[in-house]
Amino acid sequence: MDVNKYSSYTFKEFLEDDDFITWVLNPTDEQNIFWNNFSERFPDKKEDISRASSVILTYRKQDTFFNEDRITDVWKRIEVKVGPAAKQAKVFRLPQFLRVAAAILLIALAAIIYKYNQPKNFQTAFGEIKTIVMPDGTIVLLNGNSTLTYEHGWGKNSREVWLKGEGFFNVTHLNQDPAHIKKSERFVVHCNDLNIEVLGTTFNVKNRHDKVNVGLVTGKIRLTTNLVKKILSPGDYAEYAAKNISLKSKLTHPEKLMSWSKRQFIFSNVKLGDILRTLEDSYGYQIKYTNPSSRDLEIEGEISVTGVKELLETISTSLHVNVYQNDHQITIN
Asked: In b/e form, how buried is each residue of 94-127, taking b as 16+ CB within 10 angstroms?
């Protein structure tokens, strides 16, 4: 570098000099020697050097966007958009460090906008229950090992969500004229290729193992696929599997569908395999059967317990099987 080149430099010129900026941001031993010698030879430049260094460090501490070619290209695109008027007007060029800062700001802003427009995604771990309040006031209780997703701008043009796992929905009613229902007033839950459409109601949905089970507590919902449509009334419990919708039973106490939200286990006339699958799906337990036929053992009547320990004790007593638990592994003997 030429010492005499910098002898007449002003504060602004230091800010625009590539070699000077490089030294401030990533100094080498050789550069340090050069600028120390320069400062001793031209002490009247020390203040300008100090001020310029301070400003550059303030705006250029980031270590992500040091690709000068990319930054220059961004800045050129900004200048092109100014149009022909710029050729007639007096051209004002910002110092290089400010041009770099502006480019970085644009890139960061684009990243923020991109992230803002991404779908909203809620996920629970095994054994975790999460309460989600949607923008319209709808409340969703999300069971363990489950995911709820909806698009950015939800509620403006439509109310659609995608569910994997299990969730209990308390949907806010928006429509006042059943004969004229706007698209934004409908609430639709998508589970694989099954759509659950409601206006305002409470219901439970379980989407696991290629089956979707829907139980209606209050209100009315419509289940639709490309081939089938079915209306559910309170107490109806339906299953969707192999492209078919079937009504499984009429629930006397449909409110028990949300017992899991209180960490209760309520089963009625159910097989052992179905009980323990709940522990696998929502709590992450690993189940081992020394005799595979044990899965088909059925407990008659109703089980209503709180906690995994009490549930396993009830299974052992009712079915006369040995149940061994080692952390998150359960063995049925």
From this structure: ebbbebbbbbbeeeeeeeeeeeeeeeeebebeeb
> pLDDT under 70 in the chain at which residues?
58-97, 99-100, 110-117, 178
| CA Rg value for the chain | 33
Q: What pLDDT score was predicted for residue 62?
A: 40
Written as six digits, the tokens of 205 are 């949905």
Position 1: which residue type? M
| Fold for the domain defined by 122-256 | Jelly Rolls (2.60.120)
H or E stretch including 57? Answer: helix 46-59
Longest dimension (CA), the chain: 97
236, β-bridge pairs: 250
Backbone angles phi, psi at 226, to 5 degrees: -65, -20
Nearest to 145 by CA among 164, 158, 132, 159: 164
Going from N- to C-terminal start, the domains of the chain cover 3-59, 68-116, 122-256, 263-332
Query: Measured between alpha carbons, how far is 38 from 31 in angstroms, rounded to an integer?
Result: 10
pLDDT single digits (tens) 6-24: 888 888 788 778 888 888 8
Separation CA 282–CA 145 (nearest Å): 5
The CATH number of the structural domain formed by 263-332 is: 3.55.50.30
CA distance 15 to 95: 6
What is the reported pLDDT for 25? Answer: 84
At 259-293, the pLDDT tens digits run: 999 999 999 899 999 999 999 999 999 999 999 99
322 DSSP 8-state letter = -
CA angle, 165 as apex, 161 and 169 as ends, to 5°? 50
Per the CB < 8 A criterion, the answer to whether 144 and 128 are in contact is: yes
